[in-house]
């Protein structure tokens, strides 16, 4: 855990080794911002980062012509975070390439502050204020020289770079169009006042992707609290698919790579949103991850859903900005969400049955494998209650045609075997009667299309289910479909 005093995260005077960088807005014509300076602004002309590109430098008009800066196009700044290597990470190459391919006319500028970022973490945190001021000074100069329209400026900051972007937005003259925070850093920023971190006031629109909010030793690598106009938490901002310790150790053999995988996933989700326009991932507004995992929050009414990453739409500012989605382990990361509701009736000695259910979805294009029904809160199916749960598919199966509900048998998995042994031991009954439950229909809402369907038992006489059994449901009508609202007579 980081041990820092309250004063440690306040902006401190720069050490001699990095002093001389422009730290105020009054004198924006410093000579330190060029290729040999502390903060460098590398405007990209080639997809290959090995090519030098050219450098923007406040106060040097000739660099504008040399770089071919076009003030009428979008201007996108990409800002890295803390680094131990002293070099750009691989994600930078991918992000720059994706932005340039998506926005071919844009001015794409890489903000290089590695000399200040490659220090002890608390020191790098202190420099975020200075670097933010420097970016603001450059943008102000571009406004003076070229009447740069701020609404076309987009700052994309990863980790510490997200808070650098926040400072830049605070100190620029006017209001920057958009800031995107990619898993903004948590240590020394969690819970501090808005002026000392990225916040909604830093741009006209601030969107944030949170991919590593899991706490360890009292600290989360990515910030947990919502800090934007929209805060999106893929997979609850917790464990990212494909980043489990086993997954990463099999490839890299390094524990730190697992940490990096989840923190960096925000960047790769953003790259995915730039490159895969055909299937954009949707996130859904919800008060918390547990409610989302229950499938309660798949509504798009009143702007309750949004695209993620580059395609996120600006929405009016609101109090609850938290949005959630599930993703695949690899690119393309987008999948398909279904809310399922089923009323479970207790028919025979099933009060403590604790069933393990699976569903298999049959679609017009494809079928899924058996998908585990993840029941939250009590970890048991509520009897004589309507149970709601979320089902996620990795591929588009087309229109849903049929659902197969299975109850795992007592010996089909260690989990079910253990449940069975516990009941046998505590009940002192060597041959317990098979529990019987009844499910008459399953109601489904597709998150991506917002369509609603009802499925009834294919065989009306076969609605009961016991361990080892399955019931098949097909589309039917029972009045759950969306109907036009009747206008009340005045």
UniProtKB/TrEMBL annotation:
InterPro entries: AB_hydrolase_fold (IPR029058), Lipase (IPR013818), Lipase_LIPH (IPR016272), Lipase_N (IPR033906), Lipo_Lipase (IPR002330), PLAT/LH2_dom (IPR001024), PLAT/LH2_dom_sf (IPR036392), TAG_lipase (IPR000734). SUPFAM superfamilies: alpha/beta-Hydrolases (SSF53474), Lipase/lipooxygenase domain (PLAT/LH2 domain) (SSF49723). GO terms for biological process: lipid catabolic process. Residues 25-35 have a biased composition (Polar residues). Residues 336-475 form the PLAT domain. GO terms for molecular function: heparin binding; lipoprotein lipase activity; metal ion binding. The lineage of its organism: Eukaryota, Metazoa, Chordata, Craniata, Vertebrata. It is found in: Secreted. The active site is at 159 (nucleophile), 183 (charge relay system), 263 (charge relay system). Keywords: Calcium, Disulfide bond, Glycoprotein, Heparin-binding, Hydrolase, Lipid degradation, Lipid metabolism, Metal-binding, Secreted, Signal. Its EC number is 3.1.1.3. Residues 13-37 are annotated as: Disordered. This is triacylglycerol lipase. GO terms for cellular component: extracellular space. Ca(2+) binds at residues 194, 197, 202.
């Amino acid at each position: 855990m980081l041990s820092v005093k309250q004063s440690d995260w306040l902006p401190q005077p720069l050490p001699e080794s990095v002093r001389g960088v422009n730290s105020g807005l009054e004198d924006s014509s410093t000579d330190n911002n060029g290729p040999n300076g502390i903060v460098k602004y590398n405007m990209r002309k080639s997809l290959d980062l090995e090519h030098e590109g050219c450098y923007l430098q406040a106060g040097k008009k000739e660099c504008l012509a040399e770089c071919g800066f076009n003030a009428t196009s979008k201007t996108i700044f990409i800002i890295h975070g803390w680094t131990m290597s002293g070099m750009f990470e691989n994600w930078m190459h991918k992000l720059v390439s994706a932005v340039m391919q998506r926005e071919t006319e844009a001015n794409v500028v890489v903000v290089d502050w590695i000399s200040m970022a490659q220090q002890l973490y608390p020191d790098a945190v202190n420099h975020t204020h200075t670097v933010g001021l420097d970016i603001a000074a450059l943008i102000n100069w571009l406004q003076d020289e070229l009447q740069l329209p701020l609404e076309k400026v987009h700052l994309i900051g990863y980790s510490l770079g997200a808070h650098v972007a926040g400072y830049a937005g605070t100190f620029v003259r006017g209001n920057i169009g958009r800031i995107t925070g990619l898993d903004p850093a948590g240590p020394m920023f969690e819970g501090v006042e808005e002026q000392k971190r990225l916040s909604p006031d830093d741009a006209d629109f601030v969107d944030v992707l949170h991919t590593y909010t899991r706490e360890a030793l009292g600290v989360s690598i990515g910030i947990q609290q919502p800090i934007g106009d929209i805060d999106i938490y893929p997979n609850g901002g917790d464990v990212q698919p494909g980043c489990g310790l086993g997954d990463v150790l099999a490839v890299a053999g390094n524990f730190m790579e697992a940490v990096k995988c989840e923190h960096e996933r925000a960047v790769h989700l953003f790259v995915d949103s730039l490159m895969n326009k055909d299937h954009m991932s949707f996130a859904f507004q919800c008060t918390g991850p547990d409610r989302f995992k229950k499938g309660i929050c798949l509504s798009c009414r009143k702007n309750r859903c949004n695209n993620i990453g580059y395609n996120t739409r600006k929405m009016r500012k609101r109090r609850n900005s938290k949005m959630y989605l599930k993703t695949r382990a690899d690119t393309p990361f987008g999948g398909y969400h279904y809310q399922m509701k089923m009323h479970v009736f207790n028919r025979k000695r099933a009060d403590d049955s604790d069933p393990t259910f699976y569903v298999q979805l049959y679609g017009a294009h494809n079928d899924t494998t058996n998908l585990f029904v993840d029941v939250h809160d009590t970890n048991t199916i509520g009897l004589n209650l309507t149970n709601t749960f979320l089902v996620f598919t990795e591929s588009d199966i087309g229109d849903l045609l049929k659902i197969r509900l299975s109850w795992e048998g007592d010996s089909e998995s260690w989990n079910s075997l253990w449940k069975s042994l516990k009941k046998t031991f505590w009940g002192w009954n060597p041959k317990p009667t098979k529990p019987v439950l009844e499910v008459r229909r399953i109601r489904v809402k597709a998150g991506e299309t917002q369509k609603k369907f009802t499925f009834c038992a294919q065989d009306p006489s076969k609605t009961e289910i016991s361990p080892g059994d399955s019931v098949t449901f097909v589309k039917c009508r029972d009045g759950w479909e969306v109907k036009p609202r009747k206008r009340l007579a005045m």
